[in-house]
Amino acid sequence: GRKSARRESVSPRSVPHHPAGEAPRWSDHAFWILCAGGGSVVLLALTNTICQDVAVIPFLWILPLSLYLLTFIICFGHPDWYRRAWLGPVAALLGLLLMARWRGWFLPSLSWEIALHAATVLVGCLITHGELVQTRPTATHLTGFYLAVALGGALGGVFVALVAPVLFEGYWETELGLTGVGLVFAAGLWRDQQRQPGAAQKAGFLAATAFTLVFAGLAAWHIRSGLRDVIDQRRNFYGVQKVRLYAGKDPANRQHLFYSGSTIHGMQFMEGERRAWPTLYFGTTTGIGRLFQSALDDDGPPRRLGLVGLGVGVLSAYARPGDHFRYYEINPAVEALAREHFHFLADCPGTVEVVTGDARLSLEREPDAQFDVLVLDAFTGGAIPMHLLTREAFELYRRQVRQDGVIACHITNENLDLLPVLARHAQELGWQLVAFENPNDLARAVVRARWAILTANTSVARRLREARPPDAEPEPTTGPLWTDQRHDLFSVLRRTTD
Fold first, then answer.
1. For residue 385, how many other CB atoms are within 10 A of its CB?
2. Domain residue ranges in the chain
3. DSSP 3-state helix, strand, coil percentages of the chain (rounded to 5)?
4. Correct CATH for 240-492 of 3.40.50.150, 3.40.1190.20, 2.40.50.100, 3.30.390.10
5. Are the C-beta atoms of residues 187 and 131 closer than 8 Å to each other?
6. pTM
7. Which of 16, 131, 218, 378 fits a 20 to 30 Å CA distance from 179?
8. Residue 498 and residue 478: Cα distance in Å, rounded?
9. How would you write the pLDDT of the chain (498 residues) with one tens digit per residue?
10. Is residue 348 within 8 Å of residue 319, measured between CB atoms?
11. What are the backbone angles phi and psi of residue 303, rounded to the nearest 5°?
């Protein structure tokens, strides 16, 4: 009766796309390429996004890839499982949730962030591969079908890996890929409606088209608003970096802010005496500020500092005449932006040197005991370089600093609590660990930051402890041991957000 008729109207198998003996048209081949390419773009673009936000670890490559392959198994092995009636609304919901996440309207925990991206890969690829299977021709024409599938998948991969980084200044292929899923879904309904007109097909096509257009409009608005006040933006193999101007109503308050991905990595006032202020995570009330102002001998001989991670060179504000600051920065675009739009490097009273390349590899080629202080500032963003946090890396750092030297680690991170890892390294090295966490000080443009300072110098450690607030929490005495062979990201995952 009516229920049976309704099930037939929503089933994508109810409309025969290729009656026996009918050769596929060029539009069929184009649709197959679009479906296969769309799935490939969704997989790669969302994998890039989640790795930029979290970390570049095998699990975050394997999970989306496994879901992508699973959709092939489901759609080709069980085509009757593909149901537009529930996949369409679920895809719309996931699209809106992702848009809300990108806009910062809600901030899920790391686990939910991974789950949201994984679910989007699963549902997006179920739609692209489901529509692909529904238009599969008879056995006579399967060669052309599978050739189109292979070509589409390859083109999607080439687009994300080679074309998008040149064409786009941001990771905009993610929005484009999700819009493509909506187009595939609407195109499948339109093809059904052309072959077997009906109210259900027409209503579904209109709803899918309307939502796809709305999502495309929201995506364009999101991209455009993200470029507001941006004076320079660059994309390369290492990610997206941009410099944003904040002027406000007072010209004396003009600031330049440096972003890597969605994380602020540096800020400088452009006018007056505040131009020399160390800001954000590096202010005088932060752990690194306490080290320079309270623990190190300010009247001593010139210091040599190694700094892993350039940012915009804010720490150069602490240099004295004769000091030498040697930065290690893997991304050449970061140095270019720091020199073109900020003045910390140019205004440094000491000498500044920037070594381009992987910090650990660079340090391995250099002589031992060359630094009084080694600063590690590479763990603030989403994709932390985990090879810089292993036991082998810290053995290298110990060789690089002098006997009474200091290793200062900036570990401000929304998702990860890295302090237990550093506590274990301090235990392994036989060094003391002093941790700092300061509150916001907006009058000085200082934000909440976490620093962990390791040293074998008992005098420096004592002065650092004296600079800690009386109510500061005690440092952990041990934690998970990360090595080059094993480092478990989930062991330091924050269960709640602060």
1. 19
2. 2-16+24-226, 240-492
3. 55, 15, 30
4. 3.40.50.150
5. yes
6. 0.82
7. 16
8. 22
9. 444 444 444 444 444 455 555 777 887 888 899 999 999 999 999 998 887 766 667 777 899 999 999 999 999 888 888 888 888 899 999 999 988 888 878 777 777 888 899 999 999 999 999 999 888 888 888 888 899 999 999 999 999 999 998 888 888 999 999 999 999 898 888 877 777 777 777 887 888 889 999 999 999 998 888 888 899 999 888 888 999 998 877 777 889 999 988 788 899 998 888 899 999 999 989 999 989 988 777 777 899 999 999 999 999 999 999 999 999 999 999 999 999 999 999 999 999 999 999 999 999 998 888 899 999 998 876 667 888 999 999 999 999 999 888 999 999 987 788 899 999 999 999 999 999 988 888 888 999 999 999 999 888 888 888 888 887 788 888 888 889 888 777 777 765 544
10. yes
11. -105, 150
- Distance from CA of residue 411 to its chain's centroid? 16
